[in-house]
Predict the structure.
Amino acid sequence: MNLCISAGPEYNIRRFAESKRLLTLPEVAVRMVEIAQQPDPDYAEVARIVRTDPAISAKILKTANSALFAFRQRIETIEDALLKLGMSTLRTLVLSFHLAQHESSQPSLRPVLREYWRSSLTQATIAELIAEQLEGVDPPTYFLAAMLQDIGILAMLSEESELYIEQVLERARFPRVVTAERNVFGISHIDVSCAMLDKWGMQESFRAAIRHHHDQIVLVDGAGANRLGIALAAANLGAEMLLAYRVNPTTSTVPEWAGFLATRLNLNETQASDIINQVSCRVREYSALFAFDIGDRVCPERIIAEAKELLQDIALRDQLEMAREIQRRRDEIDEDQLYRDGLSGLFNRHFLNDRLSACFVACMQNLQSVGLVFIDIDKFKHINDAYGHLAGDRAIKHVADWLRQSLRGSDLAIRLGGDEFLVMLHNISCHDLQCIVDRVITNAPPFLLGDQSTCAIGLSIGCVHYEPRRNQNPDLNCLIDLADQAMYQSKRLGGNCWTRIDYDPAIDAQHT
């Protein structure tokens, strides 16, 4: 069964952003946000405002004297704490203490909130650790931005907890819930987060960085102005890697994450390993400090160990050095090595970030139609569990080979990581796109297991077709998101089918 649907927002973002079930931002936090954004903050005024809330004052003094900061002399006054901690750290503490008060009386929501806080704290910690490796940035600001980037989830859970748990979390795990949210609500928590931060008076740079932290393609501008946004995207990818429930060491996303740090933030594999090495301990410290309930386990130690081992392998193969060199010697590098996925032979995420946008822009300039296809292997976890990780590798290679046979020579097939693939077809009609997708699903042959027996392969596919028009500049990330949403719709229909979502230019305005 195949389905074509029309996409569009179904819920008003304001309904979630102005949820009465969320704790109202206290006056001390509101004033802290205002003063922190002033070019020359009045520290005396800040101290006076903080002292108006005895509970916050006590928590700040306790934090300033904790092992987390390890100052030599004991901090006795708010003025001393402010001078030692700084304005941005104090703002981060005040807002984090406020967020930690959000609880739920619903038993079904408590484990969900536990997973949410674990994800948010992991992202915030990774963002802070990344900032500590960079020059000229403020680590507390990076921590706070990462803590706030998913706050829209709290609002959505507060207003529609049952629907969110049953429909969104049935198909997705934190932090990767955007596509499932858009499928259910027509909007995502990113839209809600930005609306809430606007209401709180947070600076536009925060909202701009948060708006694109889930994008598949993360661009770097020449001036480095979007470095916070890139760090948030890296923190999101890192948390997804460490908190993954379905982990196959041979298809780990660690190389992609390390490559992202190298090409986007110029961090090497040693720095990436340092971040992984510190993240668990620091998340535990912050969860104790803010009294967040994240359960007993931050993330599996096995995954931490595997990630560090893979980073060592990357260092030995000098892959990250090659990735760094691309900025200086593009014409001299063997791009086939840089842009090819080692397991499948298809293009990889480096190609996605460095080249796919240029290909898409060329199609738009030449008014050539484009088809985007998002592919996921059905029951991939079952294949790994039942037959072993080598069988999972064979399944990925098998699908990659089948795509090469089924697609046209000019089409671009990318392995995004794990069992997910993205294909861009240009100069193709909607009818021909559907015929190709239908053939890919219907005729997919079984793949060989190690004992020469075979296993059937099923694919869930989502696709978007776009016919370019003059004076219209669609966002490639938006089209990819729509294809991803369509793939989830195929999953909901039972898998081994395709779904097409029709592109609506109004969606771009919401996405950007």
